[in-house]
Specification:
Layout: H1 2-14, E1 20-23, E2 27-28, H2 31-39, E3 47-55, H3 61-72, H4 74-77, E4 85-88, H5 90-93, H6 105-110, E5 118-129, H7 134-149
Parallel strand pairs: 3-5
Antiparallel strand pairs: 1-4, 2-5, 3-4
Length: 151
């Protein structure tokens, strides 16, 4: 979390102006999609995110099944978290100072907003590539757990 947190904070310190977008390095979202999301940050909408598209083309059956179940959870369907991309209005970004040293920055940000302040765009999607195997999924989960325990 340290390097990512540092990158988020450096990016925010260097950024000029607002509507701010935070996109994971391994997520595919186009500039047109970002423009569409930015247009939704109006009239009390302080945070936006694309619809989640999971690319399981190289993943095993168990990994795909796990992520189908995970993506269907209400806490995921209506959340900024797990989409690999979210955008904030100026007022939304001013709700906290520096990003804390957390693994799930998207979950941290999501908990700062009421449901009516978040829009998940139906006509914009981000593509998140799933791990290829159950072993890779477990390894990623263990990495996140150890990062959480070290903070």
């Amino acid at each position: 979390a340290g390097d990512k947190t540092r990158a988020l904070n450096v990016g925010d310190a260097e950024a000029i102006g607002f509507r701010r977008f935070y996109v994971e390095g391994d997520v595919v979202v186009t500039a047109v999609d970002i423009e569409r999301l930015a247009s939704l940050l109006t009239d009390g909408v302080e945070a936006v995110a694309p619809t989640l598209h999971l690319d399981g083309s190289r993943a095993g059956r168990l990994v795909r099944s796990y992520h189908r179940f995970w993506a269907a959870l209400p806490t995921v369907r209506h959340s900024l978290a797990g989409r690999g991309c979210f955008g904030l209005s100026e007022a939304g970004r001013r709700r906290w100072g520096r990003f804390p040293a957390v693994v799930a920055d998207d979950q941290f940000v999501n908990q700062l907003f009421e449901p009516h302040e978040i829009t998940i765009a139906d006509d914009v999607s981000s593509t998140v590539t799933l791990p290829t195997s159950l072993a890779a999924l477990v390894a990623r989960s263990e990495e996140h757990t150890s990062e959480l325990q070290s903070h």
